[in-house]
Every structure is written in structure tokens, then in C-alpha cells.
């Protein structure tokens, strides 16, 4: 950071998070209006207006994000907009301040762009739901918080958004809270996220005490200076703690268990939270603080290992899911693992590249799955689907595009982003080669579960009662966003073409100013020259990725296009393995047995011992003492003059005795 | 002036004890009132003994003791008048002056 950032004095950046916030307030107000009308049995038609408001707010936010992007492109430099000093305390000041730089501009475009499409889709998907207006209030609030997270120029503002998206995800996952298990899933998401949040807070405290500032520019600048001769262990610890926070939000081992359960929310929520926004915030945080992480190679290695492990474990779990959204949930965890793998090998721009393409194709897949579930009357079991391609042609075509991108078929967006990550891991050499191998295996697994899903849902015979279930194509309000996302999923790869294509890597060039400090520190560790691959090696890696994706897609597709036979055959042959895989290697159950149950038992014991016996005992005891004494004393007021006189006389004698004794 | 103050105090204590005993032990309301009277007079004797003692030590009389005694006599007279009026009213209603029969039955 050569020049200190100066406030641009412009106010419009604040409109990006403020518009969805306003939309949330208005839609929330409409919800209360709807409730009131419903009570008085009059027409409750205010709800569609709420969707309109929410969509308009998103469109406005998107336009202002675009304005920020264009201003940056025109070379205006980083835009800083300060509202006011929030916590001014001597040397340490926290401001309400937004920063639009290359990274946050990209994130706002993805969040508001994909978010806008999901809002439009949700207007069709949630039609007729009794909490329609409330749903859009929550959605808009969620986006506002996510935008605060990425736009804030200091960690405190990011933390506000960080907690905000946690709260909104709780509200949205548990949106249909009348089903108990959905409410429980919401609580689980909230609690698991809190564990990560605690680590985030601790990491933030370390940075605040070390640098006396929580502004990103200050932290990154000072870290870059310190990194010349290695970072002190304290900062490595801070990086580790922040990574713990990222693990919670971005669903990495060990804190990924909330995400598969979070499928309890309405499908647009899954698309918004698990594709485009909340789960990417961990990746964003690491990239935002890239000098800090680059200066802590141990932590970086750990991030890579955790990412690779998560990618593999979640990928294999996705293989054995019968729930359509379950496949996508584990797939999301697995793809997030890829992003962390990329961060671990120092390929920050590749991680962001995969984040962007993943936002496109996973949002598309979730929305497509929502369309299928909608058409199948809330059926999510893939074994009870099949043959839907003729019933839902538009959903089928777009879903195919998403699946192709996810499985990394050649020239799709996912192909380029995934291969870039694998190439970076391969180029890293040493330990990174192990990560590369795991990544490659996971790529094969990804193709397997993706095309198993496609074959089970859309091909083969109908495995549902054709007489009672009539699958239908969704309305244009829902299919239009699908087509837009399909185009982005297919063509998103142009953002970052490989070097061997002799085309500019748009994304890497765009992000270069943000990533440069981190890259410099990494280069320092490699004696000045970054790991580099020859063109031949790149071609081979690309070909390998394409071949594996195509082969696995082919195998999985043909194994499952005739129906559930191969699934069932696997289950009868390896019942234990199938069981373990479908339960995410039993990690969730292990948590239940090793953590949840002991904690519950300890809580019960403490409650009985400390709460009931000690605290309640003391309080109740005082009350009982007063009551009993009162009863005893009351008995003295018996109306007999003689006993009164005795008490008066006795008391006088006692007083006199005491007085004489003290007086002497 | 050859009666020592101690004797006066002992006399007051005996009178007070008799009054106290009568107040606690007797059941006749009129006797109880008389006992109260007796205790008040015991207190009067203590006041006057104190005043006399002070005068003999310092050579001049302080008005405090005799003034208190005048008050007590006035209040005692009023109390006796009111008390006896109440006793007469009670007697007219209940045909008795025994405390045992006048007291409410305890629980």
C-alpha cells in the first residue's frame, strides 16, 4: 500500500447494501399488513407487491454494483465511502466505511447478479406460500448483510455482515419452521456457525491488538512489511483462527455438518446461501487478507489439506445421496473444498474464479432442482423420479448445462476453473502433489455423482405413479433465470482462459492489484520465482481433466440411465460402505456421540447440581425462611394483653441489659 | 436530705416490679389499669431522684426532671379517664371486666 486511501466523499456506494435493506423493511411491513388483513378475512393480495419491491431493490443494488465496477474499470482507483466514525476510542477507531476495490466489486456483482435471478425465480417458486412477503423480507435482508460483509473496508463491518448472514440463514433455513426438523436444521446451522464466529472474533482481537487497526488496507500493508523476515507466531495464530471462522461459514471439515441439513430451507434459499453468497464468505475473507495467509505457510498448508479432505469426503458422500438436494448440498461442500485447496496452494485468483463459476452453475442446479421438486409436488427422492426430460424440457436443458459445468466437461466454466486449481496444485510440487492427486480423484467423483443425478432424474422410465403425479414445467418466471444462469455457466469460462489458449486471463488481471501483496510474499518464499508450468504440462493436465470428466460422466450416466438397479446393487453388495457414505462418513453421528451427547449430559448434571440445588435452593430457602418465621411471629399476635405485656417488658429488659453492658 | 438516692431507686424498682406483676398476672381490667398507674409512678420517682441527685452535686436545680413528672401525671390522668370510660363501655356490652373473657379466642 503505497498511498493511503482517501475517502472519495461519494455516497452512492452505500446504496448497494442500503437498497436491499430498505426492501427488507418494506417487504417486512407488507408482511404485517398481510397478517392483519388475513385476520380480518379481507383480501391479502399485498404479497406480490413484496416480491416486486424485493426484486426492484436487488436490481437497484446490481446497477450500483455495475457502476462501481465501471468506475474501477475506468481507472478511478479504489472508492472509499465513510458514513461516520462508529467506535472512536483514542488510537483505535472503527468506521462505518465501504470500499469498492477489484475484489469487493466482483463479489457485489456476483451477489447482486445471481441474487437478482434467484429473487425473480423465488417470486414464482414461493407463489401461494402464506409467508410470501416475509420470505422476500428475509431474502433482501440476507443480501444486504452479504453486501455489508464484502463491501466493508474493515473487519468489524465484515463481522457485522458475517453475523447478519448467519442470522438470516437461520431465518431462511427454518422458514417452514412448523416442521420441527426444519427448525432444528436452522438451529444446527446457527450453532455450528457460531463456533466458527468465535474463532473469527479471536483472530480479529489478535489483529486489533497487534496493529491497532482493523482496516484491511492497514492490516495488509503492515503484514506485507513484516513478512520480509517472517511473520511472528501470533499472526500465524490469527490466520489460523480466521481460517476457523472461514471453515464455519464455508462449510469445511470439521464444521461442514450444517450445510447438508440446511437443505431444509426453501430451494431458492439453498441457491442463494449455498451457491452465490454465504458459503463464499470464507473464501472471500482469506483472499481479502491474502498477505496474512501468504505469510503463514503452515496455515496455508493446513487450508489446502482441509480443503482437499473436505472435497473428497463430501464428494464421496454425494455419490450415495438419494435426495436430489442432498447431492447438491454435498457437492457444494465438495466444491468449496476445491476453493480452499486453491487457497492452500496460494492460487488466490483461481479460488475466486471457481467461486464465481460455482456461483453460476450451482445456483442454476439448485434452481433447476427446485423446478423439478416444484413440478413433482415436493418429491425430492431421485429414486421416485426418472424420465422427466420430456415433461420438463426447459428445466432439463438448463440442468444439463449446469451439470456439464459442475462435472467439468470440456470448455464449460467449471472445466476451466477446476483445471486451473489442479494446475496450480500440480505446479506447487512437493506436498501440493498430494493435494493435486486428491483433487483429481475428486474431479472424477464429481463427474460420477453429477451424471448419476442427471440420469436418475431426467432419463429412464418414470418411477412415480403417472396417474396421480403429473410433472409439469415451471412458469416463465422460474425458467427465465434458469436460462440466464445456463448461459453464464456455459460461457463463464471466458473469465479465465488458461495461458495455453493465448487469451488474457480476465479475472486474474482484474484481481491483480488486490492479490499482489500476497503473491509477493509467496514469491519470497520461493526465492523470487513463482512456480511455473511448461505449456506441454498444461496441455497434458487439461487433457487429463477433460478425459477423466468425460469418462466418468459416461460411466455414471450409463450405469444409472436405466433406473435404480445399479444403485440398489451397490447397496446390497456393500451395505456398510453405502451406509457410511450416505451419512458423510458418519462425521455427523460421531459429533452427536462425542460432542453433543456429553455436552447435553454435562448440562443436565450442572442443571441439577448447580442450578436447581444451589441457586434455586438458595433463593427458595430465603423465601421459605421468611415464610416460616412469619408464621411463628404471627402466632404471637394472639390478642392476649398479658402476652403483649410480657413481650414489651421482656424486650425492655433485654434493651436495658444490652445498654448497661455496652455502657459499662 | 439524708435519704440516699439508691433507696429511692430501689423503691422505684419495687413499685415498677409490683406494677409489672399486676399488669401481667391479673385478669381484672381495672386492676391492670391501676398496675400501669403504679409503673408510671415508679418512673416518676426515678425522674425526681435523678433531679435531686443532680441538684446536690451541682448546687442548682434543673427543671427537666420535675417537668417530665408533670407531663407523666397529666398523661396518666387522661389515660385513667379514657381507660375507665372504655372499661365502663365494655362492661355494659359484655357484663364482665375479666381479660380472659374479653380477649378474642386465639387460634
Describe this structure in words.
Chain A has 664 residues and is mainly alpha-helical. Chain A is built from 25 helices and 2 strands. Helix content of chain A is 73%, strand content 3%. In chain A, strand 1 and strand 2 form a beta hairpin. Chain A is globular. In chain A, 52% of the residues are buried. Chain B is mainly alpha-helical and 107 residues long. Chain B has one domain: Orthogonal Bundle (Helix Hairpins), CATH 1.10.287. In chain B, helix 1 runs antiparallel to helix 2. Chain B is elongated and about 55 Å long. Chains A and B meet through helix 25 of A and helix 1 of B.
Biggest sheet of chain A: strands side by side, in what order? 1-2
Content of β-strand of chain B: under 5%
Could you describe the largest sheet of chain A, including whether it forms a barrel? 2 strands, antiparallel
Number of strands of chain B: 0
Helix content of chain B: over 70%
- According to DSSP, the number of beta strands of chain A is 2
Please count the helical segments of chain B: 4
User: Which stretches of chain B are low in confidence, meaning pLDDT under 50 for 5 or more residues running?
Assistant: none
Class of chain B, according to the CATH hierarchy?
Answer: Mainly Alpha
| Total individual domains of chain B | 1
Quaternary form:
heterodimer
What structural category arises from helix and sheet content of chain B? mainly alpha
| Largest sheet entry of chain B | none
What is the CATH T-level topology of chain B?
Helix Hairpins
Low-confidence stretches of chain A: none
Average pLDDT metric of chain B: 89
Task: Characterize the overall form of chain B.
Answer: elongated
CATH architecture of chain B: Orthogonal Bundle
Q: What distance separates the N and C termini of chain A?
A: 84 Å
| Overall mean confidence score, pLDDT of chain A | 87
